[in-house]
Amino acid sequence: FMMIALQQSNIWITYGATSATTQELYGIDASWVNALSNAGPVAFIVFYPISSWAIGALGLRFTIVTAAGLVASGAVMRVFCNGHSTFWLVGTGQLLNAAAGPILMTVPPAISGAWFAIDERTLATAMASLVGYLGGAVGFVVGIPVQTPADLRLLLYIEGGVALFFFILCVIYFPAAPPTPPTLSATRRQTHNTSASSVDEEHRGLIQKDSKVDNHHHHHGGHHDGKTGWRLLLSQSISLMVTKDSSILFFCGGILSGIYSGWQSVLINILLPLGYSQSEGQWLGFINSAVGMVSGLLIGKIHDKYYKQFKSLLLIIYACTAASFAVFTLSTEGLFFKNSSNVLIYVSNVVGGFAINAFIPIVLEALGEVTFPSPEDVGSGLVSLLNNIACFIFIFISDYIPPVLMNWLLTGAAVVAFLLTLFVKQRYTRSEFDLHAS
Q1: Could you tell me the sign of the dihedral formed by the alpha carbons of 336, 342, 344, 350, in that order?
Q2: What's the distance, CA 339 to chain centroid?
């Protein structure tokens, strides 16, 4: 799963990370490069409802194999574009790859909930959800040697081959669920998504004894087939968005991560008018994404093992994000130093990348806790939907507003997230349920 998600993100950001060379190869301008990046959020918004339903109704294996097929077909299609006249193949390939996004961005908490124990879930969610940002980092670094149209064509061939390889592996072996669920909440998910014979008898007995929670689940948790499934998904989504704590977590996580995703995808186009080269932008993008992957895993581990306080962790992370990107923005404007390669730009970029990527798994796990017994993918799906809406708007307006203002939008989003999170009441409903059962 992680390699498929990595490749999907890498393919999405290919053209944004090689903007100047892409314009030369296809005879287009920067607005078309931004449009290719915007294929990601547009496809997510369109395909999110059916993807969110499919994860619950059809199970993890079917949906993830489908996502792998979309990534592979999109990557291969781009290879056959030989100029401006067949540019539609590039656009179609980007859309196919982007159509896998709703599944790959929504499903990480469902995977961690189905496969991992209580003290492993946040780290597992971090690994599965942040690998997309690692894909963005890979996209920036593999774009560094791409200096000519021939280099870009070679990169497209390689990406197509890698995506096809992992699709074949996924078809051959990707299990739907572990033989024995690790927690009672995982067992409850399996009873609604697998046959009864595949569920461990001891865990099923615990479910049947806890009639109160099971009753609650009947009305509020678990997906079902057909019209009932759609109605239940809609009911769960509305409940999440109108409940104070979950709505704040959803809004802050979706808006901030969406603006950040958009900022990453147009980073080079932001920096070029400020006097930076494509290579400098690629290195800044790579460093930002790479340290973010490390921070997400580190904070996930801390939350699992040592510091079960998601609210205070989010407040610290949002504060560090706002401060570091404020310094980054002022540095790129030359307020502190006139030299465009000064150390402060890189240091603030590293700190910002470390902080902003760390909040994603914490937000997703916090939503899984406060919205239980609703399935984890409901919360993560809504966060991802808002992420892509914000990303789409950010990329769209990037053609019309000054680059410096885009940096300040990212900083301001972190400030708003910090202020709103002050009003969240922390609780661990799902973990308390699992600990009580065990």
Answers
A1: positive
A2: 34
Cα separation, 315 vs 238, in Å, equals 26
What is the residue whose two structure tokens read 């499934």? Answer: 229
Q: Tokens 């000519």: give the residue.
A: 148
Pair 93, 270: CB distance under 8 Å: no
Phi first, then psi, for residue 283 (nearest 5°) are -65, -40
Residues 400 and 31 sit within 8 Å (Cβ to Cβ): no
CA dihedral 102, 388, 272, 8 (to 10 degrees): 0
The model's pLDDT over 235-292, given as tens digits with 9 standing for 90+, comes to 777 777 778 888 888 888 889 988 988 887 777 777 777 777 778 877 887 887 778 7
| DSSP secondary structure of 164-203 | HHHHHHHHH---SS-SS-SSHHHHHHHHHHS-GGGS-HHH
Q: What is the pLDDT of residue 218?
A: 40
Q: Enumerate residue ranges in the chain where pLDDT < 50.
A: 194-226, 340-341
Tokens of 174: 């990707």
Place of tokens 């196919």: 96
Q: Where are the alpha helices (DSSP H) in 107-148?
A: 108-115, 121-143
Omega prior to 375 cis, within 30 of 0: no
DSSP state of 342: -
pTM for this prediction = 0.67
CA distances from 81 to 14, 96, 152, 207, 271 (A): 15, 15, 12, 55, 28
Rounded-to-integer distance, Cα 112 and Cα 101, Å: 18
